Amino acid sequence: MSSEDLYLRHHGLLLPRETHCAQSLRFAQEFKFRDDDVTVAVYPKSGTTWMQEILPLVLNGADLTPIQTVPNWDRVPWLEEKRLALVVDQLKSPRGMVTHLPYHLMPPSFHASKAKVIYVMRDPKDVAVSSYHFHKMAQFLETPATLDEFIGRFLQGKVMFGKWTDHVKSWRGSGLGGRILFITYEEMVQDLAAAVGRLSAFLGRDLSEEATQRIVEHCSFNAMKNNCMSNFSLVPKVYMDPDTSPFLRKGIVGDWKNHFSPEQLATFSSVIRKEMEGESLE
Ligand code: A3P
User: Fold this and answer.
1) Would you say domain 3-125+164-236 falls under CATH 1.10.10.10?
2) Ligand 1 centroid to 108 CA: how many Å?
3) Which residue from 6, 125, 146, 246 has the least number of CB within 10 angstroms?
4) Distance between CA 82 and CA 20 in Å, rounded?
5) What letter would DSSP give residue 234?
6) CA–CA dist 25, 140 (Å, integer)
7) Quick check: 107 and 30 in contact, CB under 8 A?
8) pLDDT for the residue 4
């Protein structure tokens, strides 16, 4: 299928038609945020599904019911996707949502509310590698010819939700102050208990050590890989083919080292560094 068939354009960004349409984007624009809503803003392949697991447990004091009974896409739905309209009435406050939208495309009611945001960042080299494998297994995305071709497209923003650098800069420049928490995929891999501690402090939850440990255990890569509510095994193979690449693929930091050639690394780093000039990011 051609790119035209697979994606629609939304303010210059490519969005997969399989999960987005004009009505879903209108629904997102008209969505009424509540002050106690919590939104995870994240560029695709940076830890969306992981947060869909962690957030409900931090909010409810580590009651495992949501992650054992509700698929991730209905548990913490995407603001901009078609599913939201179908499940919104079943969401209990405080509602958790995720979005891949950049800050400037958030709806008016978000700006008028006090709703909090957790922004998750991941090393863009690992994002590109994860996305490359995801594009091969997801039949509703343009299949990459080679990693080299895909890296080129990624750097030009000709992938879903545009350029990684634009996304990160938009949320970092949001000026949301105490309403936004920045967290990295890498710190979650390194010390999930500490990351859960940061999240619970930000959300005003007082988690016991036992509750924190339960979250860490049930949100580990292996636990999620075996959780049919979170590993996308409920999605028919014609949409997502785990034999090509499992959704929960490796879950590590630095997999780019197994993929990038020295030339690819040099090009990638120089483009990202240039576009991130002035941002205090490592
Ligand atoms: P890899 O492809 O590098 O393995 P998203 O949910 O935003 O699409 O991101 C998917 C990436 O997050 C995948 O990365 C996936 O394995 C990783 N991921 C999901 N849950 C994880 C967990 N519990 N621990 C570590 N990585 C996780």
Assistant:
1) no
2) 31
3) 146
4) 6
5) T
6) 18
7) yes
8) 86
Q: Which residue's alpha carbon is at the smallest distance from atom 17 of ligand 1?
A: 251
Residue-wise pLDDT for 90-113, tens only, equals 999 999 999 999 999 999 999 999
Nearest Cα residue to atom 26 of ligand 1: 251
Which amino acid does the sequence have at 17?
A: R
In the chain, domain spans: 3-125+164-236
Quote the pTM value. Answer: 0.97
Q: Is 100 a catalytic residue?
A: yes
231 lines ligand 1 (CB under 6 A): no
Q: Which DSSP string corresponds to 237-253?
A: TTTB-TTT--SS----S
Residue 12: HSE in the Cβ half-sphere, 13 Å Cα cutoff: 9
User: Quick check: CB of 47 below 6 Å from ligand 1?
Assistant: yes
189 CA to centre of ligand 1 in angstroms: 10
DSSP-derived secondary structure for 45-61? TSSHHHHHHHHHHHHHT
